[in-house]
From TrEMBL:
Name of protein: Nitrous oxide metabolic protein
Entry keywords, A to Z: Membrane, Transmembrane, Transmembrane helix
Regions that span the bilayer: 20-37, 43-67, 88-116, 122-144, 156-181, 230-251
Upper lineage: Bacteria, Pseudomonadati, Bacteroidota, Saprospiria, Saprospirales
Highest taxon of the lineage: Bacteria
């Protein structure tokens, strides 16, 4: 698997899309830090971009990479190599290459401005870690879509629908349900609904780390009570880790059953 992982990572890091992805975060982060000296505001601005852009790029780039490397995958399948090794190597190569571009693109401006000290260091690492976890989660979902759908058009369409659901539609349905059932106690429902969406869970974790949950009103107080503690933060990270592992486990099962 290490050879396949090494080849996939090297091949993707040479792609112009990886450089464009890195350059965007490099220029955007550097511009925000240059215009604003408040690191908390910069982290919030980056959070809004990362929570939308990272899942989108990971999903679309993952589906594109799967379909473009299909012939190479079939060649590997003809060799005495386990299917799990092939798909895990390609998936990890994709997720690692995108994560490297994200970390370097955001990390260089923060290091260059010399503002990674004290509590700002933890805010920065919370932002980066959530971006990396979202990249791994949606890269896995993208590979799963490619495995389940032979038709490229259908695969790309499902990838867009998946991203739209988690990034936009889910929040709308969540808010609508809160309005319709506002007369009932919704603390447990709010927590459960947040856990079921990795993007929302990452957003809440970053906001709680920045200690601005009061801006979220009563809902923010609920999240602060249950997720603001060390135990709650640990459970949130565990949930994101489970979100990361679920697509990988499903990819393994789908690869075993798929007839190439």
């Amino acid at each position: 698997m290490l050879k396949i992982l090494k080849y996939s990572t090297y091949d993707l890091l040479r792609s112009r899309w990886a450089y464009l992805y890195l350059a965007f975060f490099l220029l955007f982060s550097g511009g925000l830090l240059y215009l604003s000296g408040d690191v908390s505001k910069v982290v919030i601005s980056l959070m809004n971009v990362i929570l939308i852009l990272c899942p989108l790029i990971a999903t679309m780039f993952g589906v594109m990479y799967y379909y473009n490397s299909r012939e190479f995958t079939e060649l590997l399948l003809a060799q005495p190599i386990r299917r799990r090794t092939i798909f895990w190597g390609q998936y990890l190569g994709l997720a690692i290459s995108l994560s490297v571009s994200l970390v370097i693109g955001i990390g260089i401006p923060f290091v260059a401005y010399g503002i990674l000290h004290g509590p700002e260091t933890w805010n920065f690492f919370t932002l980066i870690s959530n971006g990396v976890l979202l990249t791994f989660i949606f890269s896995g979902l993208a590979f799963l879509i490619g495995l389940k759908n032979e038709n490229k058009i259908r695969g790309f369409g499902l990838a867009i629908v998946l991203w739209l659901f988690f990034a936009v539609v889910y929040d709308g349905l969540f808010l609508l349900s809160l309005i319709l059932f506002k007369e009932y106690p919704l603390e447990g429902f709010s927590l459960a609904a947040t856990v079921l969406n990795p993007i929302d869970l990452s957003r809440i974790m970053i906001l709680l780390k920045l200690d601005i949950s009061a801006l979220m009103g009563y809902t923010g107080a609920v999240f602060q009570k249950f997720l603001g503690t060390a135990l709650g933060m640990g459970l949130s990270l565990l949930t994101l880790a489970l979100w990361t592992g679920l697509p990988v486990w499903t990819i393994q099962r789908a690869a075993k059953q798929k007839d190439f």
